[in-house]
Amino acid sequence: MHPNPLFRSDDRALLEALIDEIGFGMVFLTTPDGPRVAHTPLLSTGDGAVQFHLARGNAITRHLDGSTALVVVNGPDAYVSPRWYADRATVPTWDYVALELEGRVRRMDDEGLEAFLYSLIERFEGRLGGEQWSADETPESIWNSLFRGIVGFEMEILAWRPTLKMSQKKSPEERERIAAGLAENGSPALAHLMRTLGG
């Protein structure tokens, strides 16, 4: 988390929306073999927890149950050029959105894991438009075989540490120029958040 309090937020609805919109993150854990990270789809339960699954053979899977872990959700990020400032006699920076979640992890039972998978599939299939694919289209033998290769987890979030660094130190006019520059140069999502969330 960035040390400047200007870049923080206590808006839980916004943070939950970021998890929902991005839907993917990294799980960090210190294991007996050293620090490890796993990349995984994420699903917020809406009541202070986040669910995910990992391959059974992942380096951290066997160490997660009962541990305290860190989940990081990375939002949009982009280089910010001084050419967009009123005074160009300065240096570039990087604007970004990131959310760190710390909490206790418990392993899900098979019923919980299956419910999580169906919810995850339904959510992301729904975003694609058109005729959705359904998990029921997978033959039971294939589903069961693949299901045995993963482990589901739920993390009770004990600490929310967001960073919403979007040029808040700049004037509204400069922020609009920065947003326009970002939008024109391949970072429309960050530009949208700058304009939507304000200063």
TrEMBL record:
InterPro entries recorded: Split_barrel_FMN-bd, TR_PAI2-type
Ranges in coiled-coil conformation: none
The protein's name in its UniProt record: FMN-binding negative transcriptional regulator
Organism this protein belongs to: Altererythrobacter litoralis
